Amino acid sequence: MKNMELLSEEKNDNQYYVSLLDALIKENNLELKHRLQKLDTYAQFINEQARLLLDSINEYSAKNEVSFLEASSFCIEVWKKRMFS
Questions:
Q1: Residue 54 contacts by C-beta under 8 Å, 6 or more apart in sequence?
Q2: Of 14, 17, 36, 37, which has the most beta carbons under 10 Å away?
Q3: Is the dihedral angle over the CA atoms 13, 19, 22, 24 positive or is it negative?
Q4: pTM of this structure
Q5: Which of 65, 12, 19 shows the shortest CA–CA distance to 46?
Q6: How far apart are CA 28 and CA 71, in angstroms?
Q7: Residue 17 and residue 5: Cα distance in Å, rounded?
Q8: What is the model's pLDDT at position 62?
Q9: pLDDT by residue (tens digit) across 51-67?
Q10: How many other CB atoms sit within 10 Å of the CB of residue 71?
Q11: What DSSP string runs through 14-82?
């Protein structure tokens, strides 16, 4: 149980999602990253997306009465489908 609490605390940090979204973008749409970097807006974009993702995770968790980790997994999948489909 202690490990789950630590993992949950780590995932409730915006920087965790910045790193995660950066990796997902590199994996799924490197061209998007390059375009945004050329415009000097990539850092702003990724931070904004991470903040929105974290907000949606917290909202989903509260609304559906599921754990933060379950909400995180669900919301990340929704984000990926929205961004890369």
A1: 12, 14, 17
A2: 17
A3: negative
A4: 0.78
A5: 19
A6: 22
A7: 17
A8: 93
A9: 999 999 999 999 999 99
A10: 21
A11: HHHHHHHHHHHHHHH-HHHHHHHHHTT-HHHHHHHHHHHHHHHHHHHHHHHT--HHHHHHHHHHHHHHH
